[in-house]
Request: fold
Amino acid sequence: MLSHRTPRSLFAAGLTVAVSFALLGPVGPTEAAGTSGPVVAPAHLNLGAPDLAETRTETTLAPGVTLTKIHRGGTDSSLFWTAEVGIPSSSPDPDAPSSALSSEANADAVAAKLDAAGIDARVEQVVSPQLADAGGSLGYRVRAGRFAAQADAAGLVAQIKAAGYSSSVVYTGWDGDAGSIGQTRGPWNLDVVTIDPKQYRGELAASFGPDLESPETTSQLTAAQHAIAGTNAGFFVFDPKAGAPGDPAGVGVYGGKTLREPVGDRPGLILDGTSNSTSIQRLSWDGSLSESGTTLPLTGINRDPGLIRNCGEKGDQPTEQPQQDVTCTNPNELVAFTPEFGAKTPAGPGLEVTVDSHDTVTSVTAARGTSVPPGGHTVQATGDDVAQLRAVARVGQKMRVTADVLGENGRPLRTTKDTSVVNGGPMLLKDGQEDVTVRQDGMVHQNDSNSFYYGWVHKRNPRTFAGTDAQGRTLIVTADGRSTSSLGLSLKEEADVAQSLGMVQAMNLDGGGSTTAVAQGALVNSPSGGAERPVGDAILVLPARTDSGGAGRRP
Reply:
């Protein structure tokens, strides 16, 4: 966990520069806080119709740190509200849920029944832009009506439900259909925090708050560290049925300490707070406990045994591959806990061994749920792994617990106390080229008629993403969405925007209701839920440390 930091200055009076262009590119190098640096304008965002007006407002938050607010496009008269119909599954299972997409035959049959009920329904093929490992035709949807306001569709939705189908009201501006991506006229609102390591003298880091299982808002996490700016970061457990709320749902390294294992080989955003450089690598891990010459492999760190959010672990059911927003299970687990997890480890049947800060076993308990000693660990076993742990655990004997995040070369990442790693996915850009790996990273679900892909990948949503440009600067971007005032981005558009901002490496982070940007102590974006959502962790731009201490870099 990050230590408390005192800011050198609040940078509250940064100069703001507004520019309106149809052609405008990434913000260039900046001077000290309160001054404006040169603005480079090679291109507009590759987003929507190419002739859209684009306004950028740049604020210098600190030497080497800028916030650029981008507004692109305006009112699009071709967009409207419509009723989308849930298409019953063709499965013989009577409890199978309805889907937004289906085969053409099923969609035609639903539309015909609605027509017979006096509802003018239309069938639309959904074609998604081709990504690195997925895309093309997703299926067919059924919609009805065209309305200027959301509330106007309520009567039609009631008619559709009376005809025996589920229905919801959607805005066509949120569609990410291949034919509309380059034609939509917006609007969009984005916030870009740019960190130039050549000038910035603070520390780029990630923080999760008081403990892993207590989510906090990005504003709270930013304020607690007196950060210059901050955004939400990785995926996390949201539902108590999926584990401990707030727990990272993927790799988490904070202050150089591995506190959560990766999901499969998904990418991680690696923040080096010493050099303030950022990199992206596909990560794996190696964890074990060793006692008297016997070594047992760990299956997890700081999470509820048996519940693996986003899957991707050996032995997971129903799949060992990453699956976004799916909670896999495994009855046989060996999970280590550190004091950062929370006040108590998860309770339940099994076995728990407590190890103090000197690697000495202090207790072996035939049930789970205890406090972790300062500087020490506990290890929980469930199912078949209970007997293995009981066979090696002896009070008074030494037991070493280790966990290493492995880089793409298969070797442990070189970390210091100033290293942070946050989870995410999919990859967006690699070596300057779009490389949106949705299938590899688990956004293509098995046997769901592409409905998850339709909502998560294809449709426009609020997004948070990060990466680096060719000058070595870190860019952290939020895009508002799920409103008529800012449409959001599909994953294809997200990669397009990252590339047109000059990024050469980029990855997606948690988005939707989590997407949040804070600067100078104030919320600067518009979260889609109307208020900030508590999140698992945040990326923080910390101020330079004072002479009295702190962990930032000195000038």
Q: What stands out?
A: The first strand starts at residue 16 and ends at 21. Confidence is low (pLDDT under 50) at residues 1-13, 21-42, 547-555. DSSP finds six helices and 33 strands in the chain. The CA atoms of residues 209 and 221 lie 6 Å apart.
